[in-house]
Structure formats: structure tokens, C-alpha cells
Amino acid sequence: MLLLCLAVPADAAELQRLDARQPPPLRLADATGRQHELAQYRGKVVLINFWATWCAPCREEMPSLDRLQKRLAKRPFVLLTVDVGEDEARVQRFLDSLGLRFGVLYDRDGATARAWRARMLPASFVLDAEGRMRYQLYGATEWDAGKAFDAIAALLPSRGLESTAGAASTGTSVLLDHSSNSWNSYARQPG
Fold first, then answer.
1. Which DSSP symbol is given to 131?
2. Which fold has domain 3-176?
3. Contact in structure between 184 and 54 (CB atoms under 8 Å)
4. What is the mean pLDDT of residues 48-71?
5. Which helix (DSSP H) or strand (DSSP E) does residue 18 occupy?
6. Under a CB-based contact definition with an 8 Å cutoff, are residues 17 and 135 in contact?
7. Higher model confidence: residue 157 or residue 83?
8. With b meaning 16 or more CB within 10 Å and e meaning fewer, what string describes 21-44?
9. Is the pLDDT of residue 182 over 70?
């Protein structure tokens, strides 16, 4: 599988509105072996973020995902981060190095990423409280501010969160070639 690191203009990595369609299935385990399925989170806004530790744009946006989760901790919101193709020990070392405390689901063979058409990393999808896909984003952004935060806040069942419009996305991503089942790449960065 071919993975390329791409840098695009900051304004190119914007949330793309979707027509409230049904998402592909998602059934993945966390580090404890507990299975997670989307149906468990009905009634909550869900942000699904596909990423990997070797992906520089992914690493850049991880702190903002952590801040977003903390900011919405008392709201009907769930962050599901999905590591693609890496072992748990490597991922845990990465999370520990940045002091990140959110949970991670493991897509060991990349099948879920392919089903979700996550052709770049990071790839993110926002589901409304009814479980419908409302937004997608290929590339990194600051999730706890600006348009990304405002889009999520607008989907929450009860309003009242302040707007943070104006914060820019980082505008970078990693291109995935799903032509094989391997997630090995010459574009991987040490980490």
C-alpha cells in the first residue's frame, strides 16, 4: 500500500457537509478488547477520527482532539479515534508522550478505514445524534475551535456553546492507497 504525505493550503482542509446519510458499519475493539459499535452511541454526536502515529498531520491534531473531548465532557458527545494498522504498545507510547488520555480503537488490517473510504490520514467523520453522517474532513484541523467546533456544537441536542469561528485548519493530510491490504509505506516517519 502506498502512503504519501501531502501538504495542502490551510483553507483546503475544511469540513465537508454531507446529506445525513447512513454510515458504514464500525465494530472495533479498544486496548482492553471491548468492542465498540456505532449503535452504542445513539443519542450522541460522534466524531470518528482515523489516524496513525507516523502521520505528521495526525500528530499535529491530536492535542486539539483531546481538548475537544475535555471541553464537551458533560455533553452528549463521543470521540472515537481509530488507529490504522499499528500495535497497541506503539500507540500507547505515543499517547503517553503527549499526555493524551482519550481511548483508541484499533483497525489492525485497515478494513474499517477502507469501508469508510478514509483515503487520507487523518480522515474524520461527524455523526449526528441519530447516527447519520453529517460532515467529513480529510486532513488535520483544530477540533476545539473555529468552524470544526461550531459544526459539532450545532449538532448537539442542546445548544448554548460559544462560537469559535475563525480558527484555521492545519491543512495537511496523508494520502492512502487501498490497493493492497498492507499499511506499510515508504512515506512512514519514525515515531
1. S
2. Glutaredoxin (3.40.30)
3. no
4. 95
5. strand 16-21
6. yes
7. 83
8. eebeebebeeeeeeebebeebeeb
9. no
Whole-prediction pTM value? 0.80
Task: Give the three cell numbers for residue 160.
Answer: 448554548
pLDDT band at 159 (very low <50, low <70, confident <90, very high): low
Would you say 122 and 140 are in contact if contact means Cβ atoms under 8 Å apart?
Answer: yes
Residue given cell 505528521 in the structure block: 56
Q: How far apart are the first and last CA of the chain?
A: 19
Alpha helices in 33-87 (DSSP H): 56-71
Query: Interhelix angle for 146-155 vs 56-71, to 10°?
Result: 40
Give 158's Cβ-side CA count (13 Å radius): 4
Continuous H helices in the chain:
56-71, 88-98, 111-115, 146-155
Domain locations in the chain as residue ranges: 3-176
Residue 166: count of CB within 10 angstroms of its CB: 9
The Cβ of residue 164 has, within 10 Å, a number of other Cβ atoms equal to: 15
- Identify the residue whose cell numbers are 469561528: 165
Using DSSP's 3-state secondary structure scheme, residue 7 falls into: strand
